[in-house]
Amino acid sequence: MEPVFKRILLKLSGEALMGGQNYGIDTKVAEMVARELKTVHDIGIEIAIVVGGGNIFRGVSESAGNMDRAAADYIGMLATVMNAVVLQDALEKIDVYTRVMSAIDIPQLAEPFIRRRAVRHLEKQRVVIFAAGTGNPYFTTDSAAALRALEIEAEVIFKGTKVNGIYSADPMKVPDAVKYDTVSFREVLEKQLKVMDASAISLCMDNNLPIMVFNMREDGNIVKAACGDLSIGTLVTSEAKQTAI
Q1: Which of 104, 110, 209, 226 could cysteine-pair with 132, CB 3.0–4.6 Å?
Q2: Could you count the other beta carbons within 10 Å of the beta carbon of residue 108?
Q3: Rounded to 5°, angle at Cα 168 from 164 and 174
Q4: Alpha carbon distances (Å) from 193 to 57, 66, 140
Q5: pLDDT in tens, 146-165
Q6: Which residues contact 225 (CB under 8 A, 6 or more apart)?
Q7: CA distance 80 to 74
Q8: Would you call 123 exposed, middle or buried from its count of C-beta atoms within 10 A (0-12, 13-18, 19+)?
Q9: Does 212 or 54 have the greater pLDDT score?
Q10: How many CB atoms lie within 10 A of CB 16?
Q11: Which domains are seen in the chain, by residue range?
């Protein structure tokens, strides 16, 4: 398979690292993701990753209770750093050079995020993992993914989920939900489709940055997406030619 992208950004949720657990990190899942990323890396694609922290702590969640929102969001940022270091370890064990860059200053674990340095790492064929979101409370890791993708001039955002694309409703709850083949940013906002938060979608729409949504749990899907196989999920673009299948 031939790659169709030179530089991608993968948005990896914290929940994707849980595997079958209810909480925390399943290292076997991290190893599986790392092996797929190595395959993508080996065909010459530059890879950046934004990792979430929902498997450990989420600012907007029951576990946050009555905690101050800003404080809770900062704790969530620290959770993303933990996930990033786990993923880095899994990648480097299979000889993929990796750098973690954090939006908050943790020099013992990660480099500070500097755009030019991040681009240079990518040019040197290092996988770059962006941790700690944007470094600001009230912004999700979805917004961080859109922001970082634009800063490094990625060609596409890959959004790994637990379902094989975008549906008109939650397919786990609504059996006859319609799966979209392609969909426009405007439709995502108007129909309130659960892809990424509205701020991230608006940022991608304003800058014409496509989003590919697919099932992370199926082996080979990251490679297929990187090689332009649109059948595995849903493509979000400025103008969708086909809205549903």
Answers
A1: 104
A2: 4
A3: 85
A4: 24, 28, 17
A5: 999 999 999 999 998 888 89
A6: 158, 212, 214, 232, 233
A7: 10
A8: exposed
A9: 212
A10: 22
A11: 7-166+196-230 (3.40.1160.10)
DSSP letters for 150-169: HHTT-SEEEEEESSSSEESS
pLDDT value at 243 more than 60 = no
d(CA 159, CA 145): 9
Q: Hey, what amino acid is at 153?
A: E
- Residue 227, pLDDT above cutoff 80: yes
Could you count the other beta carbons within 10 Å of the beta carbon of residue 49? 27
Helix/strand/coil for 233: strand
Sequence-distant (6+) residues with CB within 8 A of 120 are none
pLDDT in tens, 55-113: 888 766 666 678 898 999 999 999 999 999 999 999 999 999 999 999 999 999 999 99
Radius of gyration (C-alpha) of the chain in whole angstroms: 17
Q: What is the structure's pLDDT at 161?
A: 84
Signed CA dihedral, 30, 35, 40, 46: sign only: positive
Confidence of residue 245 (pLDDT cuts 50, 70, 90): very low
Q: What are phi and psi of 228, to 5 degrees?
A: 85, 15
In angstroms, rounded to a whole number, what is the distance separating the alpha carbons of residues 132 and 74? Answer: 8
Q: Each residue of 211-224: b (16+ CB within 10 Å) or e? A: bbbbebbeeebbbb
Sign of the torsion angle spanned by Cα atoms 91, 119, 199, 159: negative
Q: Which helix (H) or strand (E) holds 74?
A: helix 69-92
